[in-house]
Amino acid sequence: MDIQLLSKDAEAFIASLPKNAPIDRKTIDQLVVDLTSLKQQLKIKTEEKKETSSKFRKAKDDPEALASLKRKMQSISGELKKLESNKQLLEQQILELCTQVLPTKENEPELPQQFLAQQYSKTATIPNEAIQIELVQDDGAQTWDEYVNSHSNACSYHRYAWRSIITNSFGHKSFYLLAKHENVVIGVLPFFWLKSRLFGSFGVSMPFFNYGGPLANNASIAEYLMQAAAKIAKQNELAHLEIRTTNNGFSWPSESRKVSMILSLPKSSELLDAGLGAKVRAQAKQADQYAPSITFGKLDLLDDFYKVFSQNMRDLGTPVYGKSIFRNILSHPSIDATLVVTYTQKKPVGAAFLIANREMMEIPWASTLKSANFMNINMWMYHRILHHCIEREFKFFDFGRSTKDAGTYKFKKQWGAQPVEHYWYSWRPDDAEAPSLNPDNPKFKLMIATWKKLPLLIANVIGPHIVKNLP
């Protein structure tokens, strides 16, 4: 049970308990009343101590007044100590009454199954020569998804639906590898072939999104799928192959500069707010004075979403995706996607894209206009999105990928999100280091600075042709 929440807001703590919990609510309610009264006394006494402390400077030349103030401070400090001790005693009594009849959270997962160490089945080690690798086409989509849906560690991007979404949006060729043993599916690995004069020819699992990699019954099968993918990459003369996953321990060289920030959601919006720091709550409320509104929808919001998203990408110096990728995701019946747009004075100033997977809601894209920063619209919008996710009964919220200790990392961390390591494995036929195709690469600094100065119309026309080859 959450002792921190009890200390911050006893009523919210009691409200978080199951309604049918076999606890003595009459006794607990009285203890909460006593605890609330004690907190008020502590607040008054703390203010009195602060006020008394402020008088010391004026009394420094008056020994009698100074002595009186010291005695008063000692008396107040003694009372505060007693009140704090009584407060802790009451909190302990409430906890003890609850823990006698309620289970603790020790065995509850702090992260979605997707991020837990792969819960491999008891499939025995299978010799590589006994594993058959098939390249799946559309007629095998059902078999593919049956396996993905049965695996606890599957992410949204393992689903077959993403093959047509990415292909129709960017035109990339893909390879969907399926491993079988005695005609039973034991693993899958999707990857895409990106090819351009500007960035070369290479493969990624999965490009444009945060997760991918092998999904298998055991680690040796996953490794074998990666080797099979490397063989295909070599046959097609790809310069390198990148496998993006949150699973550690594969044999290929890897880097781990990125993390996902995952927040465990409480059962109610009231509990979320009670658990946030005072600074975060104040920042989230700052925009209220500008009367913003927020709308959740689908294709009906695409134009307004794109107005905000494309302008923000240009301002960041990043080529923007074309509208088609968002339209194709929203239109696909297998993907649970939602658009979010925030308005002030009927104009879109904030936007986000949400993708649901099992117990978790992910926000792969979010933007606010630079002109709206003074209103703190970003904080306001995220706060409302978190409430929306709680209303839809999601257990976790994925703030998306960040570089460790970067500004976006710190923004997400303040909400209480915890980091999950990313491991990006790379293969090259010559074992050389794979190129770094990301904004952190110093080689792109000039391009980023130039891009920020482009007229929005030009950036929106050129951007999609460039970014489709940036994974």
UniProtKB/TrEMBL annotation:
Domain of life: Bacteria
Location of the BioF2-like acetyltransferase domain: 279-412
InterPro entries the record matches: Acyl_CoA_acyltransferase, BioF2-like_GNAT_dom, PEP-CTERM_FemAB-rel, PG_Glycine_Bridge_Synth
Coiled-coil parts of chain: 28-100
Keywords, alphabetical: Coiled coil
Pfam families membership: Acetyltransf_6 (PF13480)
Protein name as it appears in the record: BioF2-like acetyltransferase domain-containing protein
Species in which this protein is naturally found: Saccharophagus degradans (strain 2-40 / ATCC 43961 / DSM 17024)
Lineage of the organism: Bacteria, Pseudomonadati, Pseudomonadota, Gammaproteobacteria, Cellvibrionales
